[in-house]
Amino acid sequence: MSRIHRPTRVRRFLSALVLVNMLSGSAALAQYRPPPLTESQQLVKEAEVSQVAASAALTSGNKKEAEEKNRKALQLFEQALTVDPTSVPAAAGLGTVGNLLQDYNRVAEKLKPVLASNPGEISLAYPLGVALYKLRRVQEALPLLEQVSDANLPEHLIVNYYLGSYYLYEQRGDVAIAKLQRYLSLRPEKLAGNDYQIHELIGRGHLLRRDPASARAAFQRAQTGRPESVSTQMGLAAVLEMEGRTQEAQTLVQKLVTSFPQAPEPKERLGRMLLSTGDVAGAETQAVALVKLGGTAAAHLLLGDVRLAQKKATEAEAEYRKVLQLAPGLVSAQIAVGRALQAQGRNEEAIRYLESAAQAGGNNLELWASLGSVNRRANRFQRAVEIHRRVVELAPRQALGYVLLGADHFATGQWDQAIEDYTTALNVEPGNATAQKWLARSLAHRARGRADSNRLDDAIRDLRRAYDLDRSAAMARRLGAAMLEKREFTGARAVLEQGATMQGATWREHWLLGYARLGAGDAEAALAAFDQAVKLTEQPEDLADVSVGAALAEVELGRVDEAVQRLSEPGPSKAARALAEANLPLMLLRRALTRLEGSELEAARKDVELAEKFNLAKQPDLAKLESFTKALLLTEEKRFAEANAALKRGLTPTPRWAQSNTRALAEAYMLYRKEQVPQARKLLTAAAKKPSPWQAKWMSSLANALHRVEGERAYAAGNFKLAEKAFKAALGSDSEDAVLQHNLACVEYRKGKAADAVVTWKRLEPQVPTAALNLGIDAQERRDDIPEAVDAYRRYLATGGSRAGVVREWRERLVVLYGLGGGATASEPSEATATETLP
């Protein structure tokens, strides 16, 4: 029976054990076994073992064994991927080992499908991106490398180096610097010894950004703690060049040539520097030494450029052909061959050669660009435009094609189209120096055409834009000249004052500045500008041109004699002679008018006679000014009939320089000189209804002169009431006039107010000599004070008054009569004397 019940107890025991185990959660009673590996996974595991063995062999120095192990690993990874085409570990391992063995084509072929199924997998993007980059399939590689870079993992830091280097090649300094700085932030300490290479690249990036200060700092960090490095020193030389310190840069490169005689880079750079400055002989020395040093493609290319600069196009072609033997397909050499052929006059051959090279080179921008330029230089402008439009199609986001199209249209004088091309280039690449330069020149050319067709506003608008693009002395001169022609003197002055201080400014900027300042009413500053222009040139024709401007400034300063002297010797310049002939008669007539104001009649007559010797028939307004000036001269000589005829010739019809009331004013003055006071006053009153600002003072003076003449004539006729009225009227507008005050005192004296008159005469004696004469008359006649009278006459005689002869006789008689001998009866004066001075 016992045998029958035993199995039941066993079953109960096992069930209880399982239940307890499940409820208690105690340790498993059996070891865990993972699922069996797939065939692909097994192959990946074996490949990883072989990969580890390769690393160990490489560490021990056995490179051959390491390569064998890596090839075995590659084979195993590939087999794993064949078994499971979706295996990420197999693909990643194949990529790592394949790149290590430089089997980039295999990596690119095998990894692309896997990555397409796993687009965010960094372990695949990294080896595939590196392989494509090594295969120079950069446009495919860049998105992958950027994806890896963004992950910011230390094990992938080399990607940032690749990206930084490529962006430098693309001339994208900002992005390149960012990638290289990320490299420095990720690199392990054990690689810090190579940081100098990264700092050099960062320095080049700053050069692309045109930031010489940051570039210098980067190159100096690269040089710190290391022996003098050629590449770093070359970077510092580039910094000096960017700062405009060309001579210092050349000196530094020359030092490197001496210190590192076997280094080719300094020799090539020095040769290029010398060639750019026109020192072809010095460049040849460096090029020959460079060829002897190694005969590299760069050496022969430099020597070819030297030969081309020496006008030895055949020898240059031979050197360029050598470059192509050493570096087949080198674009710069192919372009150089085209230039050499064209320099020999073999234009068609040059075009065929570059056409063939461009077709073989596929989409090489430089070749297509050069082919179009050769066509342009061969005057095949339409073909040049067609080719350069292809350049635009190949690189629509680069300025190159638009700049070349602009050059094509510039060469044919299509300024509107050229301006559009260069503007587009700047829209694509803001700050493009070539586009800015030629856009400014295109605008300047269009402005010239617009100015010639009397579209000065449009011309100035173009030149303002050109000046914004090209802040140079030459462009300032163009804009200033246009503004002068438009008579915008203030604006022209501001522009030319800037231009005169810029590098490259010549005498012309200062010459135009003189005219701008003259037009703005600053004759003193204008003369200073003309004087500065004289210091900047020694050419007789230039000096003659400046002399004319200086003469005009001197006239404005009242130095008419100096102006006439300058214009009398205009020099050899045709322009100066023309300006002198146009301006010298004007200067002579202006001087004649000035001399008339000063009563220098004889000198004024000579000036008018000199002006008459010029052919004034070509300048009708100037001929009328001569007649007008002569009329005034004849008036002063009291030749009124001739003066009236000359005045009629000068003002009929009215010239541009005359005002509507000029004739009335001139006739009023003529009547004044005839002493026809009522008629003169009537004309003056009519002419004064609409005076110009500068006429007001002259009209006031003439009105005062009429009052004075009227007063003197009334005084002489004994009409003291009218005389008093006239003198007071004159004093109303010129109360400080001493002569008028004196004459009014004479009227008061005759009206019985002798005491008041004597007080006035004593006050005015220092200013009016006749006052002393009247004081002597009063002392002798009214107060019988002979000593005082004699003393007063003495004072009058000391002034050299116009009545000195008569007064001297009076004084001598008084001296004799009153005790100094003789008894002659004096013919004594009996009344006060008014002045007879006319304005």
Automatic annotation (TrEMBL):
Pfam families in alphabetical order: TPR_16
TPR repeats: 54-87, 297-330, 365-398, 399-432
Entries under PROSITE patterns matching the protein: TPR
Keywords (A to Z) from UniProt: Signal, TPR repeat
Signal sequence interval, chain numbering: 1-30
Highest taxon, organism lineage: Bacteria
PANTHER family: CELL DIVISION CYCLE 16,23,27 (PTHR12558), CELL DIVISION CYCLE PROTEIN 27 HOMOLOG (PTHR12558:SF13)
Descriptive protein name: Tetratricopeptide repeat protein
Source species: Hyalangium rubrum
Source taxonomy: Bacteria, Pseudomonadati, Myxococcota, Myxococcia, Myxococcales
